[in-house]
Amino acid sequence: MRSAITWMQKTAAAATITAFSLSGAHAQDTKPSGEPIKVGILHSLSGTMAISETTLKDAMLMLIDEQNKKGGVLGRPLEPVVVDPASDWPLFAEKARELISQDKVAVVFGCWTSVSRKSVLPVFKELDSILFYPVQYEGEESERNVFYTGAAPNQQAIPAVDYLMGEGVERWVLEGTDYVYPRTTNKILEQYLKDKGVAAEDIIVNYTPFGFSDWQTEVSKIKEFGSAGKKTAVVSTINGDANVPFYKELANQGIKATDIPVVAFSVGEEELAGIDTGPLVGHLAAWNYFESVDTPENKDFIKKWHAFIGNDDRVTNDPMEAHYIGFNMWVKAVEKAGTTDPDKVIDALPGIEQANLTGGTSKMLPNHHITKPVLIGEINDEGQFDVVSETDDLVPGDAWSDFLPESKKLEADWVDLKCGNYDTEAKKCLGDTMAEKSN
Amino acid sequence: MSDSIIQKVADEFRALSEPQGNARPPAGPAPAAAEPVGNGAVHGEPFVSPHPYATVLHDRRLAAEAQGLARRDTLLYLNGVTKSFDGFKAINNLSLVIQKGEMRAIIGPNGAGKTTMMDIITGKTRPDKGEVFFAGDVDLTHHDEAAIASMGIGRKFQKPTVFESHTVEDNIRLSLAGPRSVLGALVHRKDRAERDRIETILETTRLTARRKTYAANLSHGQKQWLEIGMLLAQDPELLLVDEPVAGMTDAETEETARLLREIAQHHSVVVVEHDMHFVRALGVKVTCLHEGSVLSEGTLDKVSNDPKVIEVYLGR
Amino acid sequence: MLLARFLGPRVWILVAVILAAAILVPLANLALPPDHALHVPSYLVPLWGKYVCYALLALSLDLVWGYVGILSLGHGAFFALGGYAMGMYLMRQIGSRGVYGNPVLPDFMVFLNWKELPWYWLGFDQFWFACLMVVLVPGLLAFVFGFFAFRSRVTGVYLSIITQAMTYALLLAFFRNDMGFGGNNGLTDFKDILGFPIQAASTRAGLFAASCIALAIAVLLVGWITRSKLGKLMIAVRDAESRTRFIGWRPQYVKLFAFTVSGIMAGIAGALYVPQVGIINPGEFAPVNSIEVVVWAAVGGRGTLIGPVIGALLVNYGKTVFTAAAPEFWLFMLGGLFVFVTLVLPRGIVGTIDHGWDALRSIRRAKDAEKDESGGDAQAVPGPAE
Amino acid sequence: MNRSIRWLLAGLAFVLFVAPAVAQQAADPAAIVQKFGGKQSYDDTEAVISELARTGDANVARALRALRDGDLYWRESDEAVFIGKRKGDDYEIFDPMTGEAAGTVPRGEMQKVRVKNSIRNAVTTALGSLTLGADSAAQRMRAAETLFSEADPEMIEPLDAAIASEEDAGVKARMEEARASAVLVSDRPAEEKAAAAKILANRADRESLTMLTRFAGATDDPVAKQAAEAAIVAIQNNIAFWNQMQNVWYGLSLGSVLLLAAIGLAITFGVMGVINMAHGEMVMIGAYTTYVVQEFIRTNAPGLFEYSLFIALPLAFLVAGAVGLVMERGLIRFLYGRPLETLLATFGVSLILQQAVRTIFGPSNREVGNPDFMSGAFDLGLMSVNWNRLWIIVFALVVFAALLAVLNKTPLGLQMRAVTQNRKMAAAMGIRTPWVDAMTFALGSGIAGIAGVALSQIDNVSPNLGQGYIIDSFMVVVFGGVGNLWGTLVGAMTLGIVNKFLEPFAGAVLGKIVVLVLIILFIQKRPRGLFAQKGRFVEA
């Protein structure tokens, strides 16, 4: 088994080295030496989530490869350890345990769905390791061992709704897949919209199951709701597989973006790769990164990605950028701490800054979320997004939403308060997060 | 399944609305089988009531009484039984009576309805209409296979079906008469009486030497005997034996005939068979079926000389 | 003991091995120093515990499939229900240590704005109640489902497909957040069980031992059932259901008994599984999971006591190894294994060994010109018919 | 919104009354179009559009349309505006006013004039006002529709004028409806409003319902109110009727998808008794074949794209059929008579096929485009019918009929039925049973492949495609009755319609759960499915 792993890695490394020597971009600065630092990659390569997560595994391999070319970390080479949790949530926990205990990785980059994160969370807490989580999520969480490089709801959903309100939208369909991310996001949005004076009858919330493919009834419901005379928009938190049939049905029922725009939080370049975007032009997505963003850093990143993967048609997307930021932050933190010891790295991470690919500088916050710009993009006919709106400043990620009654009073701060869920009213740290660390 | 329920309800309804139809048994359209039963009393006194429903009730009471009389001493009583599959009438208005202690051979060409008749008696198939009574007053159409088997009707199939993954001994043990509760079987203990009983049956069926052999490894004839042994183990009132000598050697056939005669000393037996030599060896009353109903009945000589039978067997 | 003669030496060896594991693995984990050659690292204990739970699940399926011929494609449902019952207890044990500090409501209810605990969560703060439910809920579902299905004489693929429909319907139902079982995320972030911290090595070792003991008891139980007259009746039902009716048995009750016992066993497996893997979510209801259980039993050898246990351990160990060693190719290996087993080892590993052994013996006997050519061990019967 | 109405008004008035006279004196439209050049905000762009609308010059429509479609560019060197068409790494550019070709320019030198939805809306409105007086009746119709939803009292008089001069009856009716919608919110007398309510009642769609409801709530006049309320009831009945029709339609459409997914299984499972867990993967192979065909056409013969599905159909049949053939010869034939073991083996095959596709094509979705005839929808009463759904229903029925014909009318079908009914006898009659088995399995797989072509039009083309259909397919076949094609048809349609009638009440998830429970209960009542095989040899 061990030899099999080494064999795999050798092949992967050989392939990447070939790719890069062909591109001829790099002269090696210093050759890293010594005991390699292992980096765990915990993304599903099979099962339902492989569709999204496989790209992230490749992106991580590229980033590690890059870093090794630049001399590794602390002068030591990085060694990726790839496992396949197969979209099976308990298997995520098992594989995480294996990575940390058996392979002794210094850090893990991985997970996509909330449930996979929830599944590995106790493992990371127990074994005291570090997880970088690159996907936009529902918030309501801040753990000492986890760094959230994806967007919290305030970094994606709320700016998107603000934009649409500016465009004159008065009626809202909150359409989502029935799981925790859409539930929470919609709850936040519903509260937010009501605070902004939208009447209750101008909002409908609707949930469909995973992998839902027969959208006829749902879409005609949206159509009917949108025919009431007020400008209507759909806020979609529909997950992965269900999106393609949803958009196809929208197009087929003749709903154009100019009539009822759909703003999606889970549809990026990778998802659009499976759809003919001609009929979807003008529908929106809110992200913190688009491949179409025109900055030198992004151009460079895309070039390297194409060279690494050996295919110019492969797109980049937001979670890839999140890994890019997260990985570089980790590297900086390790260099700063002078060790890969998780406790020291965790303490070193808040405050680390890293240039993102859209021209700003993201910063790791004490609540283990990062600052990000929020971009609203319209789908164009090339399967890319045209940015139509962008927040002026970077938005700091908020772990506990201010629009949920229970979490309004909570605050996360791992630097001063050493607590992920500090109750600002009762002035104490809730739960056992604190207790566990202090003994 | 629901079909047959609907059918039954419909039949009952029909029985209500036209009482003098099939509810009056031997007076029905197939009196051939009902020779031994007299029912002149019913015909003797026509009853006219001022109220039509009272007439209906009266007729039904008389019919029931007549039936009771007719059935009283019978072991098996079939009257006006009809069963069709997709329009094909496998059994057509069949009436048949087996007396207690009787051994009867049933012959008939292929497709005469012998197996379907067995299915109906054992509860595997429900008749479209007609009556099936066991021991005088038990309506078999209201019971399932297991209940009918427990009442004392045992059946041997045309194609020997034994439990191939079990030993001969276990096959018989599973068939032994006794409680049929699942939890009882879980805590069941083998005892002396059970062993003796199995021993007896093994001897009767000449399988003692093979008691530990898996049924799958038995020869064809041995499987037939094992199945008869399983029948005996149930200790039934009535044994239905379907083609017991099919595929047997002459010697085995002789032996089987002897076995059946032996069994018939303590049980009622119905044997369905093609083999005329075998039927002759049994030496019992014979019923010939044709196209789902009784064609002829009597001694083998009488039946085989019946012109109708000759026509059916030779005429086509 | 009566059972000793009854079950044959092989089963006792299996039970002894399981019980030895129940004692030795925790000892090797807790008592030996980490650098000792025989030390079992802490991360392996829950992993092996998981395998043991799967073995119990496979054994429960074998009881209905191998011995009664009911191919259930929905056994994952019983497993998951048992798991949820245990998960609900573990959730209640979190108490005010959840992120919102609510002493009664689990976190997911708090952020979905539930104001009070739904009635079906009441009582789960008591361990005994949860244990009762672990047995009762899957058992009751199996009983009710089985009662109707077997009474109506639903057999063969029809039965398989409706068991699949059952688990699929439950999957969809548990996905719904409105059900109050945590939706897709399920139940997780458990803190302690019976007052012991769930992540402590000693608790893990205890759970592992408990799983082993449960498995050993289950092996004995299934052994006892299948060697009893009822067991012979089960095989009779499997091979010639209608024949059993004509000798007066009611096969539907035989099936119902096996199905219910099996459902309860699966539920217990699920209950032991949850604290060891730390999460229960609707994914466990997925039809594919149930099909995998069938595969374990088939690989090991159905209709035997040892086969499903070995099959579950082997396939899952292989999955652990290959998802790490060959993450891109392990599905080819797994798929290939299934094809290989059905083609080359239709009786499964144990069944094939038995069969070979049996054939050998009958050849020897034939040489001795012995008339009685049968074998003694009831496991070595000719392959189960469908 | 309001602003755009005002331009529209201005534009409309201009076109109707003034434009012919003053067009020559207005600012040069070509010069205004050039104002799109250079970096500018969306507001700037919008201002230019309204300026163009005010010119009333129909020649600017070309530039506006290009703008809406995202084809308007400006040159970085001199900020000159052109219409661009992508050609490899260059743009072919055209004059925005005349459409004359103006050469090719490298991509890097051109900048797109940025648009967003509000800009597209502004362009549409401007184009509407510019074209209301146009000769095309369709364009006038569109303008009337726009006015209908705007419902602005100030439009009553211009509409009166337009109605007076309109000759096309259809357009005239639309204009009258637009006028009625405006009257309802105006301060006109009650009788006129009552009359307007009647016009809207005749239109009888959801939009008019909304308007009438709002009007009935606001008006004080009893007569008008009564008229409105009567109209509301009538419209509601009409809508309720069409909602039922819509449900039936959706149900048929879902049923046809289920039928397509299940029909191959009805052969491999229903007729041959193979519990084919790899059936979904056959569907997936069909979908991927479509993808490959379309990719090939895109690069080699773009003109054939409209026919890509027809080209893909036979290929998908052959590819999936070939895979099925290999499966049967290499695996299934060793397992006849052991149906439950085919489940394990084919499950293994399905894992292998999935991973193989993932390895070859990558894990993400592949794009399969809809040809034009499969896109869009038409209205039937208040019900909208999608062309692709319609074609899929037709296609499913055609496949069903063809399969039925193959089974009942061809020698292969005869042999198939013979082999499934009595293998030994068929062999004794000289039928090569292994060959028939192989062909039957290949046929079933091939049909699944064909289904994949159709499903690629409405669903993801990903390695998980098959997984989504396998359970439903088995439900359909078992519900309908194994071994009976008609059962599969009726089963699929029943499940589809029941599902769609439940969905509006119970929601998508609960609806599906209810359907599953109903199937379980139904099997209790009829343990052999809807169209059970009957006869005395069927074991009870």
Provide a quick synopsis of the model.
By secondary structure, chain A is of the alpha/beta class.
Provide keyphrases for this structure:
heterotetramer; A: 439 residues; alpha/beta; Rossmann fold; 3 domains; disordered C terminus; C: 386 residues; mainly alpha; two-stranded antiparallel ribbon; 15 helices; Urea ABC transporter permease subunit UrtC (chain C); transmembrane helix (chain C)
Question: Please, could you describe this protein's structure?
Answer:
Chain C: It comes from Jiella endophytica. Chain C: The chain crosses the membrane at residues 12-32, 64-86, 127-150, 157-175, 205-225, 253-274, 294-317, 329-350. Chain C: This is Urea ABC transporter permease subunit UrtC. Chain C: InterPro entries: ABC_transp_permease (IPR001851), ABC_transptr_urea_perm_UrtC (IPR017778), LivM-like (IPR043428). The complex is a heterotetramer of chains A (439), B (316), C (386) and D (540). With 439 residues, chain A is of the alpha/beta class. Chain A is 38% helix and 18% strand. Chain A has helices at 2-23, 50-69, 89-102, 114-127, 157-166, 180-195, 216-225, 243-252, 269-272, 296-309, 318-337, 342-348, 433-438, and strands at residues 37-42, 78-83, 107-110, 131-133, 146-148, 171-177, 203-208, 232-237, 262-264, 284-287, 353-355, 361-363, 371-372, 375-379, 385-390, 395-396, 410-413, 419-423, 428-429. In chain A, strands 7-6-8-9-10-14-15 form a seven-stranded mixed sheet, with helices on one face. A five-stranded parallel sheet of chain A has the order 2-1-3-4-5, with helices on both faces. In chain A, strands 17-18-19 form a three-stranded antiparallel sheet, with no helix packed on it. In chain A, helix 2 runs parallel beside helix 11 (318-337) and helix 3 packs parallel to helix 4 (114-127). Chain A is globular. Chain B has helices spanning 2-17, 40-44, 52-71, 114-121, 145-151, 168-175, 182-186, 192-204, 220-234, 250-264, 276-282, 300-305, 307-314; strands at residues 74-85, 88-99, 103-107, 129-134, 138-139, 153-156, 238-242, 268-272, 285-290, 293-298. The model of chain B is unreliable at 15-44 (pLDDT under 50). Chain C starts with a helix and ends in a 19-residue tail after the last helix. In chain C, the strands form two sheets. A two-stranded antiparallel ribbon of chain C has the order 1-4. A two-stranded antiparallel sheet of chain C has the order 2-3. The longest helix of chain C is centred in the middle third of the chain and has 27 residues, at 201-227. Chain C has one domain (2-312). Chain C has helices spanning 2-7, 9-30, 44-65, 75-94, 107-111, 127-151, 156-175, 201-227, 229-239, 241-246, 251-277, 287-300, 306-325, 330-344, 348-367; strands at residues 187-188, 192-193, 196-197, 279-280. Classes of the chains: A alpha/beta (439), B alpha/beta (316), C mainly alpha (386), D alpha+beta (540). Chains in contact: A-C, A-D, B-C, B-D, C-D. Chains A and D meet through helix 2, strand 7, helix 7 and helix 8 of A and helix 5, helix 10, helix 11, helix 14 and helix 15 of D.
